[in-house]
Amino acid sequence: MEALSRMLSAVVNHGLMASFSVGDPQRGPISVSHLLFVDDTLIFCDAEQDHLRALKALLRCFEATSGLRVNFDKSKLVPVGTFSTTQQLVSTLGCKVTSLLMTYLGLSLGAASQALSIWGTIIGKIVKIDSVEEIVFVERRPASMAVRIEKLYRDFLWSGMRDEFKFHLVSWDQVYRPILSGGLEIKNLRTFNQALLGK
Fold it and tell me: Do residues 47 and 130 both lie within one domain?
């Protein structure tokens, strides 16, 4: 997949396809044209016939050089916005078309970041405290989600992975405190999220 990544970057660098920029312009934005996930690839480009022709040619070249096959029947074009040329773009690429809202890798794409359904899915995947801190602090989320995640924290701390009830032996405010002050230095989710949003 490293070869495909380099090929996509070269096509973008030669202006045959467009990428999009994310990040702070003052710090130097990051240009994103594709993302690779194990055996999935997301490719971002403008809804232009020439760009999709270039992409199709690149994928055919990749097939010829790598011996791998791109399954266009399983591939999907996901337009962001409304385009009168969607069917032409689909026929150029030879794939199916779908739209946002959709689920990818178990997460909803295209939903508002405040939608409870998104965070409910994420909470359902949380199994240990470390994973909570890694995935939760992306965007502003409903306050009720912080309450549910903190309940998972507490239940895990006192019961581990078992479902049996255990009394909470110390107040949660004590658990938030630094280790030197007798706490466990577990982050307060609401405070931490507000701090990240203020950056």
Answer: yes
